[in-house]
Design brief:
Layout (H helix, E strand, L loop, with lengths): L4 H29 L25 H31 L1 H5 L1 H15 L3 H12 L3 H28 L2 H8 L4 H37 L11 H9 L7 H27 L30 E12 L3 E12 L3 E5 L6 H8 L8 E3 L2 E4 L2 E2 L5 H11 E4 L3 H4 L6 H12 L4 H14 L5 H4 L9 H12 L6 E5 L7 H18 L2 E6 L2 H7 L2 E6 L2 E7 H6 L4 H8 L13 E2 L25 H5 L5 E2 L5 E2 L4 H7 L10 H7 L7 E2 L10 H11 L1
Parallel strand pairs: 3-9, 3-10, 7-8, 8-9
Antiparallel strand pairs: 1-2, 1-4, 1-5, 5-6, 10-11, 11-14, 12-15, 13-14
Helix pairs in contact: 1-2, 1-10, 2-6, 2-8, 2-10, 4-6, 5-6, 6-8, 7-8, 8-9, 8-10, 9-10, 14-15, 15-17, 17-18
Length: about 650
C-alpha cells in the first residue's frame, strides 16, 4: 500500500491526524484555554497565527486541541455502528432464517432514509449533547453496514465449503468466526475506515447545529459554529476548524480507498517455516460387508417444500473398483443424487430411501458422529468448481489437513504432513511449497487435483466426481480423468462420475446410468452405449454430440422442447412431450425401469420401436434425418437454430460444433 502515491499520502496524512490527536492536548491545552481580554477577536499575527476568539483564546491552539475529541467521537460512533451492523447483518446466519427476515426487513426500511436524516432523528430521541450525538451517528451508520454485512455473509455462506462445514457439524458461531468472517473481513474493514471519515463529518455537522458537543467542551464542529457568526470580519475563526474537518475527513476516506485497492492477496509461508514430516499412518477402509458392494441405493428420493421432488426413485449399485457414469441434461437430478448420497442436502431438503448404504453401513440411521466419520474417510467428493469448494482465505495445505484432524484425530503436524503427501499423490509439483499457498495461486487444473487430494486424505472406497472437468481445457481435462483412472486402478476405488458429456463418460466408465426428470431412464454398459441406447432420450443425447465426422454444413442436432419441471410433473412419461415415439399410453402412464428383451434396464414403453428406428451397425451419433427416415421420430432430435446450410456459413458451423464439444 505504501508503494502507491495514494496509499503513501493517505497513510502519512492519517498518521499525522492520529499523532496530533494524541500530542496536541498536553502541549497546547493551556494556550487554548487561556483568555486574553487584550486580544479579543484579534486577527492573524505572529503571536496568534489564526487570530483569537471572543475571549482572546488562540484559535489555532483550540483547533489542534479539538483534534482528540473530534477523532475520539468519530471512532467511537463508528465502533457502535459497526458492532450493531455486524449483529444485524449476521442475524440470518446466527439466529436462523425466520428471525433474520424480520431483522432485515427493519434494516431495509432504515436504509431507505438518508444517513444524515437518521442521525438527526436519533439525535432528537437520545437528546442534545455529546452522548446523544454519539449514539445518533452510531445508529445512523448501522443500517448501511448491516446491509453490506448481510450481502457478503449470504454469498459466502452459500458456497460449497461453508455448506460442507455445516453438514460436518460446525455450529453457527464457529462457522461465522472461522469460515465466513475471514472471507468478508477485508471489505468490512475498508468500509469501516471510510465510515469513520463520514462519522467525523457528521459529528462536526451535529455540533455545528448545536446538537453535539456543548460548552465548555468543544470539537471542530463547535468551533466552526462559533466562528461562523463573524466570518465576514474574522474569517480565520471559521476557516481553521473547517480546514481541519476537511483534512481529517479526507485522511480517513483516502486511506479507506487505498486500503481497498491493495488489501487481499497474501503470499505463501516462507519455505523455512515448513518442515517435511513423515506421513502418519492412515487406517485403510474396511472391506464392504457382505460382498464387494461399496454403495447400495434403493428408491432414493429428494424432496423440497412445494412440493418439489427433483430426485424420484433412483436405484444405484456400485461395486469396488467399478466406474459408473451418471449422465443427463442440466436439471435432471444428477448432482442432487450425489449430494444425497454424501448427506450434503441441507434443510429444507428431505432425503428418503428404502436403502442407502455405504460399505454396508446405513447412512439414514445410527449415530451422527459415526456416519460423519465414515463419510469423511471412506467417501471422497470432487465438486464441479473447486474455487467455491476451497475457502479462499485459508491455505490449501491447512484445508486438506483439516480433514485428517477432524475425521482421523491427527495432530496439526501429522495432518499437514499427510496433506503434503496427498498433494504429491495427485501430481502437484513442489507439494510442500504449494501447501502453503492460497487457492487463487493455483491454476484451474491444479485446484481440481488439490480437490481430489482432499478426498484422498482418508482411504476412500468411493469417489464421487461431479463434473470434474468443467471449464478445463482438453489437455488438463485429460490429466484429471487419467488421475481418477489411476487412483481407481491403484487402490480399487469405486468411481461415480457425473457429467453432461456422454463422450467423456463413455471413455472412463464401465456402466452408464442415464437420468431424466429425477429418475434413471436407462442403465447400460459402455459397449451398449456405443452401439446405441434403447431409450429415445439416450439416443437423442448421443445424436446431439458432434464428432470429427459430423457434417459442419448441416444443422447441429438438438433435443427439442424444454426439460421437465420438477415442480409440475406430468402424469405419464416425463420425456413424452419431447419424444417422437410418444403415444396416448406414454401420456397416461409412467413406464417403470424394467429389464427388456436384451437384458438392459430401460424405462420406456417403446424400446423395440426405438431399436428398429436405427440400424444397430451405424455409429451412435447417427444423423437425425436418417432416424426420421427410418421411423416418424422427427421430434427426437431436430435441427438447432441458425442460418440455412451453405458454404458461406462454414465458419459459423465450426464455432458451433466447437462450442458443443
Amino acid at each position: 500500500m505504501l508503494r502507491t502515491p495514494l496509499g503513501a499520502a493517505a497513510t502519512v496524512l492519517l498518521a499525522a491526524v492520529l499523532v496530533l490527536a494524541v500530542v496536541a492536548p498536553p502541549i497546547w491545552s493551556a494556550r487554548a484555554d487561556a483568555p486574553d481580554t487584550g486580544q479579543i477577536l484579534a486577527g492573524p499575527s505572529p503571536a496568534h497565527w489564526m487570530g483569537t476568539d471572543s475571549l482572546g483564546r488562540d484559535i489555532l491552539a483550540r483547533v489542534l486541541v479539538a483534534t482528540r475529541l473530534s477523532v475520539e467521537l468519530a471512532l467511537a460512533a463508528t465502533g457502535i455502528g459497526v458492532l450493531i451492523g455486524l449483529l444485524l447483518g449476521t442475524a440470518p446466519l446466527l439466529l436462523g432464517a425466520r428471525v433474520g427476515r424480520l431483522v432485515l426487513a427493519a434494516v431495509n426500511i432504515a436504509v431507505a432514509f438518508p444517513g444524515l436524516l437518521l442521525a438527526l432523528f436519533f439525535a432528537v430521541i437520545f437528546g442534545v449533547g455529546r452522548t446523544g450525538a454519539l449514539l445518533a451517528i452510531g445508529f445512523a451508520i448501522a443500517p448501511g453496514f448491516a446491509r453490506l454485512t448481510q450481502t457478503l455473509t449470504a454469498r459466502v455462506a452459500g458456497l460449497d465449503f461453508a455448506a460442507a462445514a455445516r453438514i460436518a457439524g460446525v455450529g453457527r458461531f464457529r462457522l461465522f468466526l472461522r469460515h465466513v468472517l475471514p472471507n468478508v473481513g477485508e471489505p468490512l474493514v475498508v468500509n469501516a475506515t471510510i465510515a469513520a471519515g463520514n462519522a467525523l463529518l457528521a459529528f462536526a455537522g451535529l455540533s455545528f447545529l448545536g446538537l453535539g458537543v456543548q460548552p465548555p467542551g468543544y470539537d471542530w464542529g463547535r468551533l466552526l459554529g462559533d466562528g461562523l457568526g463573524g466570518i465576514y470580519v474574522h474569517p480565520a475563526a471559521a476557516l481553521a476548524p473547517g480546514v481541519a474537518v476537511v483534512v481529517a475527513g479526507l485522511a480517513f476516506n483516502l486511506f479507506g480507498e487505498a486500503l481497498a485497492k491493495t488489501i487481499g492477496p497474501r503470499g505463501p509461508l516462507p519455505a523455512g517455516r515448513r518442515r517435511p514430516q513423515r506421513p502418519a499412518p492412515v487406517p485403510a477402509a474396511s472391506p464392504p460387508a457382505g460382498g464387494e458392494t461399496v454403495l447400495d441405493v434403493r428408491d432414493l428420493r429428494v424432496a423440497f417444500p412445494g412440493p418439489v421432488t427433483p430426485v424420484r426413485g433412483v436405484d444405484l449399485t456400485i461395486r469396488r473398483g467399478e466406474a459408473v457414469g451418471l449422465v443427463g441434461e442440466s436439471g435432471s437430478g444428477k448432482s442432487l443424487t450425489a449430494l444425497a448420497v454424501a448427506q450434503l442436502v441441507e434443510e429444507p431438503g428431505e432425503v428418503r430411501a428404502e436403502r442407502l448404504e455405504l460399505l454396508g453401513t446405513d447412512l439414514t440411521a445410527g449415530p451422527v458422529r459415526a456416519r460423519r466419520r465414515l463419510l469423511g474417510t471412506s467417501l471422497a467428493m470432487v465438486f464441479q468448481d473447486p474455487m467455491t469448494s476451497f475457502n479462499p482465505t485459508m491455505r490449501v495445505g491447512r484445508q486438506l489437513a483439516e480433514v485428517a484432524r477432524t475425521h482421523q484425530g491427527m495432530n496439526r503436524r501429522q495432518a499437514l504432513a499427510r496433506a503434503v503427501d496427498r498433494l504429491r499423490a495427485v501430481r502437484i509439483p513442489a507439494a510442500a511449497r504449494r501447501a502453503g499457498q492460497f487457492p487463487h495461486e493455483f491454476s484451474g487444473g491444479m485446484r481440481q487435483r488439490a480437490m481430489i487430494g482432499m478426498g484422498l486424505m482418508g482411504s476412500p472406497a468411493l469417489v464421487i466426481a461431479d463434473e470434474p472437468t468443467t471449464a478445463l481445457d482438453v489437455t488438463v481435462q485429460r490429466r484429471v480423468l487419467r488421475l481418477l483412472a489411476d487412483i481407481r486402478a491403484a487402490d480399487g476405488v469405486a468411481l461415480l462420475l457425473i457429467s453432461h458429456d456422454i463422450t467423456v463418460v463413455g471413455q472412463v466408465c464401465d456402466r452408464v446410468l442415464v437420468m431424466y426428470a429425477g429418475r434413471v431412464v436407462e442403465e447400460l454398459t459402455v459397449a451398449e452405449l456405443r452401439a446405441g441406447g434403447r431409450h429415445p432420450y439416450t439416443r437423442a443425447l448421443l445424436a446431439a454430440v458432434p464428432d470429427l465426422t459430423t457434417d459442419r454444413h448441416a444443422p447441429l442436432a438438438v433435443i427439442p422442447g424444454r426439460p421437465a419441471d420438477p415442480a409440475d410433473p406430468a402424469p405419464g412419461c416425463a420425456f413424452a412431450p419431447r419424444c417422437g415415439f410418444a403415444d396416448e399410453r406414454c401420456a397416461r402412464a409412467d413406464p417403470p425401469l424394467a429389464v427388456d428383451g436384451t437384458g438392459r434396464r430401460v424405462a420406456c414403453w417403446h424400446t423395440e420401436r426405438v431399436a428398429r428406428a436405427a440400424d444397430p451397425a451405424t455409429r451412435p451419433a447417427a444423423d437425425p434425418a436418417d432416424l426420421a427416415a427410418a421411423d416418424p421420430v422427427a421430434g427426437l432430435a431436430g435441427p438447432g437454430p441458425g442460418p440455412a446450410p451453405g458454404p458461406g456459413n462454414s465458419d459459423e458451423r465450426e464455432v458451433r460444433i466447437g462450442d458443443q464439444s
